[in-house]
Amino acid sequence: MNHLDDLVNWFEDKNKVMIALSGGVDSALVAYAAFKKLGSSAIAVTADYKTLSKEELDTAKHICSEIGIRQILLDYDELENEDFVKNDSNRCFHCRLELGNHLTKLAKENDIEIIVDGTNIDDLGDYRPGIEALKQNGIRSPLLETGFSKSQIREVAKSVGLSVFDKPSNSCLASRIPWGQRVTSEKLIRIELAESIIKQLTNLNHVRVRDLNGSAKIEVGKEMICLLDDVILKSITEKLKLLGFVAVEVDPEGYMPGKINVIVD
Fold first, then answer.
1. Do 79 and 131 have their domain in common?
2. What does the angle CA 239 – CA 189 – CA 181 come to, to the nearest 5 degrees?
């Protein structure tokens, strides 16, 4: 029995299952396995909570179409949650706690007992307070329970034809704002537009724009920094300043997850 069989069979004795599906490969594989075993008794739910980029939302819709699974869009505004907006080191906990509450309510309305997500064994190595928040709502993680690593997820996703098998990991737009600086809709909009502009000008698909008190710090893979030559950087700087950024620079260290998870006054 291969690893995919283990994942599919995890759903063996389940009746109806709800999958918290983002635009990433992890939850996509969980949705694929659930649908393979349960068919229409598996439902994907994507939360449009206003800190998810349109690109991620569109990808989530595409994933569901690709799999053939029914998708429900959960619409609410995280910016109405002061615990989230104040952006301290527990921001992700408050985000996931609120998400879990919405998912639990939706599950009850649809007579669904089990909610699952895409957490895998590699996630346990990072600072992920959101995982604990989801656990508090009883949300289970089939990839974790069947021992999937990120590389195994990508390998299996590729083998079953999921187009997101090599999609770079992403996180909500609020993760671009350092702890201690409030999350606002204005910041989220300019971050999303800035990343979109840079992707269009460079053809890079993995870009972060950190909003540091109004200054834009661009992060790309270290090996890709050379693509941001003076001409392209001049064009990027002009466009990002039109969005309201007061300064623009490229991080010479390149992209690293969680780099700004520190309190910045």
1. yes
2. 105
Amino acid in the structure at residue 203: N
Residue 155 belongs to what H/E stretch? helix 150-159
Read off the tokens for 33: 């396995």
For 211, the domain range is: 175-250
Residue carrying structure tokens 């909570």: 49
State both tokens at 216: 């834009």
CATH (domain of 188): 3.30.70
Tens of pLDDT, residues 82-137: 999 999 999 988 988 899 999 999 999 999 989 999 999 888 766 566 667 677 77
Q: What is the pLDDT of residues 17-60, one digit of tens each?
A: 999 999 899 999 999 999 999 999 999 999 999 888 999 999 99
Residue 263 lies in a domain: no
Instruction: Say if CB 91 and CB 180 are below 8 A apart.
Output: no
Residue 47 and residue 45: Cα distance in Å, rounded?
7
Report the DSSP beta bridge partners of residue 72. 45
Q: Look at the pTM and tell me if it is higher than 0.85.
A: yes
* Residue in this structure with the two tokens 């700087």, named with its chain if needed: 237
